[in-house]
């Protein structure tokens, strides 16, 4: 993984005690390692918004933990459009499954905001996987959950209107951003290009839907920021109960 704007070393690491029923697995199907259990050296790197962290099809033997900010994971659709598969919040990991499998990265990782990542050697994760049956079980169950989540999103995207998909995406991103104590989850820092790529849909149609939601006082904001003003109304749009004209 490359593209760092700054790097330094700190004392951090990984231990079996980190894998508990409450803190071992991240809601977005990514393994979480709590700070107090990190005892091995890591490389700390900071990235500017939009900067590439790691490219697809690259073989690496390090995984990274998002210490601050958010990271987007994307791929290219057959028609050439970008599809943001996942937005990884604070405490999420990057490249952990590829390190375990010794495979190349499947997705491109890019800084969705100014962010700081802590990089660890892949052998740390493989050693834990080899020595802790409970950890292996959790990795497997979360991998299945991640596949199920993606399937549900694909099905919902095929059956829902763009306005409903957009509202659902804003609510989902609100949950992601809300994992950072510094963010209530009501303010999303995301460009219109990235939002269109997350759906995926054309930027023009997404802009039309955003304008309707702003006119209805459901959301507000601009210049790469979206603020949720009426969460209940947004939930109604997501469920298809309300259509804003």
UniProtKB/TrEMBL annotation:
SUPFAM superfamilies: cAMP-binding domain-like (SSF51206), Winged helix' DNA-binding domain (SSF46785). Keywords: DNA-binding, Transcription, Transcription regulation. InterPro entries: cNMP-bd_dom (IPR000595), cNMP-bd_dom_sf (IPR018490), Env_Response_Regulators (IPR050397), HTH_CRP (IPR012318), RmlC-like_jellyroll (IPR014710), WH_DNA-bd_sf (IPR036390). Gene3D superfamilies: Jelly Rolls (2.60.120.10). Residues 160-232 form the HTH crp-type domain. It comes from the Bacteria. Transmembrane segments: none annotated. This is CRP-like cAMP-binding protein. It comes from Rhizobium laguerreae.
